[in-house]
């Protein structure tokens, strides 16, 4: 409201005094437009941004951190254990002689058995500390630490596999957007050509030089070309949304820089082998190592457990040995001290059957992971062969489409010229224009298909660096 009042108040002033406001407004608009402008992204930048922002990569990285924390947890088993206790109670002291099996309900009582039950009560207290340490464990703690380290290695290799998958998907989405945009350009050119011929045909019909059916046919061809353009534009929006998903950028503000991707890359021999270093195979190898580490830890579990223990404690009680109580606050504080030092040996004899069953489970899991690794290698081999075949075919097609495009252009020009000269019919023109539009689409996509095949080859090899280097030249 303030700006509108000021502008109305200054509408009768001279142009010299009224000029600064539009100038400031224009500057503000230009500044805001530049703030929202998106710098065109290359395919390498798109891949790097996807690896940085896509959530699945962060998930894998957090799993690595979790596995690293698991190593620290396993190492804490080397530390001694110290338990502190403090207790205050007020209770009776009627004690009985006899056996009581271990349980967690009835509280134990120390002291002599009284001749009769009494309901007198007094204070009791206790405080103490028990320190336990296992000096040797026949390699069990080391095996558990090694199992945790192998789990971290597997998590790290899972990160490498996730990064490869995200990078491949982002690069493929980038190429899909470029292909959709090329289809839009070819479809737009087809619409323009159809519109020109339709105007010529309509003029000839109105001049009674051609039958009205020719204008109707060309109008239908124009509508068909417009429909194809709409479909191409829709495909472009869908492709841009798919790419924006990886980059965390609104699809309307997405701007791409094609670079050399619209030209055919130089032919180079496809590298072979090296599938053993593929992240998917390495992840499976780490899974096998993890199971073997757990088997080793189970093998070190059926041994005695030795614990050095040291304790010191103090107790207080308001009772006397003759059954009388001290009264007042007697027993509220510990006043009788003791200490002890010794070793405890624990050997779970009947755990052997369960340990054998658990090791058998791990053996079958190891065999399953070995089969998965073999399946992964076989799938990668087939993927690499398919990608190589696709690359070879894409290069042959890209070498042929320029001749197809040149012939289609000549046919369209000749058909149009014959029609304008009255020597041809509208059907020949329509077919020639459709052939030219399809040839333009095929020619533009042929070079992108080479890049897509190169991406598939690099993905099958497990390393996108060669592809991204070619795309950045």
In a nutshell, what does this entry contain?
With about 475 residues, the protein is an alpha+beta fold.
Q: What is this structure's SSE topology?
A:
Blueprint: H1 2-9, H2 15-18, H3 20-36, H4 43-53, H5 55-75, E1 81-91, E2 122-133, H6 140-206, H7 212-247, H8 279-299, E3 305-317, E4 336-346, H9 352-420, H10 426-461, H11 465-471
Antiparallel strand pairs: 1-2, 2-3, 3-4
Helix pairs in contact: 4-6, 5-6, 6-7, 6-8, 6-10, 7-10, 8-9, 9-10, 10-11
Question: Would you give an account of this structure?
Answer:
This protein is α+β, with helices and mostly antiparallel strands and 473 residues long. It has a domain at 43-72 and 142-291 and 356-468: Outer membrane efflux proteins (OEP), CATH 1.20.1600. 63% of the residues lie in helices and 10% in strands. The chain is built from eleven helices and four strands. It has a four-stranded antiparallel beta sheet, with no helix packed on it. The protein is elongated and about 135 Å long.
Mean pLDDT: 81
- CATH homologous group name of one domain: Outer membrane efflux proteins (OEP)
CATH third-tier fold name of one domain: Outer membrane efflux proteins (OEP)
* Alpha-beta content class: alpha+beta
Q: How is the largest sheet built, in terms of strand order? A: 1-2-3-4
């Amino acid at each position: 409201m303030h700006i509108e009042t000021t502008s109305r108040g200054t509408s009768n002033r001279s142009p010299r005094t009224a000029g600064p406001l539009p100038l400031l407004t224009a500057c503000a608009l230009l500044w805001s437009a530049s703030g929202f402008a998106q710098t065109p992204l290359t395919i390498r930048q798109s891949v790097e941004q996807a690896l940085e922002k896509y959530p699945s990569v962060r998930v894998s990285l957090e799993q690595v951190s979790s596995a690293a924390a698991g190593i620290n947890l396993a190492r804490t088993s080397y530390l001694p254990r110290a338990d502190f206790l403090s207790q205050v109670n007020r209770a009776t002291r009627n004690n009985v002689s006899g056996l009581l099996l271990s349980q967690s309900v009835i509280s134990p009582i120390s002291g002599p058995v009284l001749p009769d039950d009494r309901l007198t009560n007094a204070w009791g207290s206790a405080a103490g500390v028990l320190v336990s340490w296992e000096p040797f464990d026949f390699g069990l703690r080391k095996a558990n630490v090694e199992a945790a380290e192998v789990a971290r290695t597997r998590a790290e290799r899972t990160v490498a596999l996730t990064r490869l998958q995200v990078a491949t998907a982002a690069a493929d989405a980038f190429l899909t957007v470029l292909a959709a945009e090329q289809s839009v350009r070819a479809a737009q050119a087809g619409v323009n050509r159809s519109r020109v011929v339709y105007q010529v045909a309509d003029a000839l019909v109105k001049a009674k030089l051609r039958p009205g059916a020719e204008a109707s046919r060309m109008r239908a061809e124009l509508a068909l070309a417009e429909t194809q353009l709409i479909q191409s534009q829709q495909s472009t929006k869908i492709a841009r949304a798919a790419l924006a998903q990886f980059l965390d950028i609104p699809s309307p503000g997405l701007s791409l820089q094609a670079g050399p991707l619209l030209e055919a890359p130089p032919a180079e021999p496809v590298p072979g082998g090296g599938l053993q270093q593929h992240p998917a195979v390495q992840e499976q190898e780490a899974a096998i190592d993890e199971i073997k580490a757990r088997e080793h830890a189970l093998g070190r579990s059926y041994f005695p457990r030795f614990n050095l223990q040291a304790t010191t404690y103090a107790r207080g009680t308001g009772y006397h040995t003759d059954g009388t109580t001290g009264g007042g606050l007697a027993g509220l504080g510990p006043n009788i001290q003791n200490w002890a030092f010794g070793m405890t040996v624990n050997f779970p004899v009947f755990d052997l059957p369960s340990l054998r069953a658990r090791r058998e489970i791990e053996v079958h899991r190891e065999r399953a992971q070995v089969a998965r690794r073999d399946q992964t290698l076989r799938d990668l081999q087939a993927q690499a062969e398919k990608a190589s075949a696709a690359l070879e075919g894409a290069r042959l097609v890209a070498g042929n489409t320029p001749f197809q495009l040149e012939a289609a252009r000549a046919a369209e020009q000749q058909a149009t010229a014959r029609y304008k000269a009255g020597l041809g019919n509208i059907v020949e023109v329509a077919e020639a224009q459709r052939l030219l539009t399809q040839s333009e689409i095929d020619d533009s996509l042929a070079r992108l298909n080479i890049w897509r095949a190169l991406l598939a080859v690099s993905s099958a090899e497990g390393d996108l660096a060669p592809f991204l280097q070619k795309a950045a030249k």
